[in-house]
Amino acid sequence: MSAQTPFLVFSGTNSRYLAEKICNSLGCPLGQMNIQHFADGEFSVSYEESIRGRDVFLVQSTFPNSDNLMELLLMIDAAKRASAHSIIAVVPYFGWARQDRKDKPRVSIGAKLIADMLSTAGINRLITMDLHADQIQGFFNVPVDHLYASSVFLDYIKTSLSLDNLCIATPDVGGTKRASSYSKYLGLPMVICHKSRLRANEVAEMRIIGDVTGLDVLLVDDMVDTAGTITKAANLMLENGAKSVRAIASHAVMSDPASTRVDQSALTEMIFTDSIPYAKKCEKVKVLSVADMFAEAIRRVCSGESISSLYVIK
């Protein structure tokens, strides 16, 4: 990169696809980094160009497995030891975010632990998107720029979903605030699914609060893991008279057998962002890119501009 460029963008192994899109949007090349893997599973990180006195943006989502998080921590440590001016972690998908509180005795709060690890490693700022719980921002003692995929999804809803009887829905009570924001912004009715669980990733019972008869339902969620909840909600909507059911979710965790469940469900389509790479075959899945949004956030952070105008709805 040119010595005149005030910042550099680097990427971990599994987020390179997104980092390259971000760099294309910024009009800069992706920084050169070497990640060497050893026979015992360890790996080391080294920067292949000088980063002394530069603002360094490290793009890496911390989706499973834990190597992605460890890679990011080593990238941060290497940047700190190479005298970077500031280290900004760009984490489109912040893993462990579902462990944000003690919901039963003697459990860890994983999201706080990850926040402490990133801070101790040496980040000066975090840029992330659609945290599972907004209060996770308070786990950090450095600035957090919390972006929302709503701007990307709203463009898609307005331009690609030409539906007259659209209704916003949430697959569980926990997502009511998110769905309500879409409902109010678009001026659409909203319904809620209430669920109970026997154990993690297993829904015991679900019921609809509201009427979906004759409506085209759009389910809104922050992530889809095993797809049990969202497909059960979609099937229930259709059984209760919905005309069609679609879903949008920021993060495509999509652990097996999620793709199969989506294919076999009542969903017409499932729309994700590319915060996590999705390479599995599922005819109903469509992926929208958030690269331009992150690129604009990086540009504004570097120039000291406000990023609040990027928040269409929260």
Outline of the structure:
Helix content is 29%, strand content 28%. The chain is of the alpha/beta class.
Spell out the key features of this protein:
about 325 residues; globular; 14 strands; alpha/beta; 8 helices; seven-stranded mixed sheet
Compile the SSE list and pairings.
Layout lengths: L6 E5 L4 H11 L6 E5 L5 E5 L7 E5 L7 H15 L4 E6 L18 H12 L3 E5 L14 E4 L2 H11 L5 E5 L5 H11 L3 E10 L2 E8 L6 E9 L3 H12 L4 E9 L5 H7 L2 E7 L11 E4 L2 H13 L11
Parallel strand pairs: 1-4, 4-5, 5-6, 6-7, 8-9, 8-11, 11-12, 12-13, 13-14
Antiparallel strand pairs: 2-3, 9-10
Q: What does the overall shape look like? A: globular
Gyration radius, to the nearest Å?
A: 20 Å
Instruction: Write the H/E string, N to C.
Output: EHEEEHEHEEHEHEEEHEHEEH
Helix/strand structural class: alpha/beta
Please give the count of helices: 8
Low-confidence stretches: none
According to DSSP, the number of beta strands is 14
Biggest sheet strand order reads 10-9-8-11-12-13-14
* Quaternary structure state of the chains depicted: single chain
Describe it for me?
The mean pLDDT is 93. The chain has 8 helices and 14 strands. The protein has 314 residues and is of the alpha/beta class. The chain has helices spanning 16-26, 67-81, 110-121, 150-160, 176-186, 228-239, 258-264, 291-303, and strands at 7-11, 33-37, 43-47, 55-59, 86-91, 125-129, 144-147, 166-170, 190-199, 202-209, 216-224, 244-252, 267-273, 285-288.
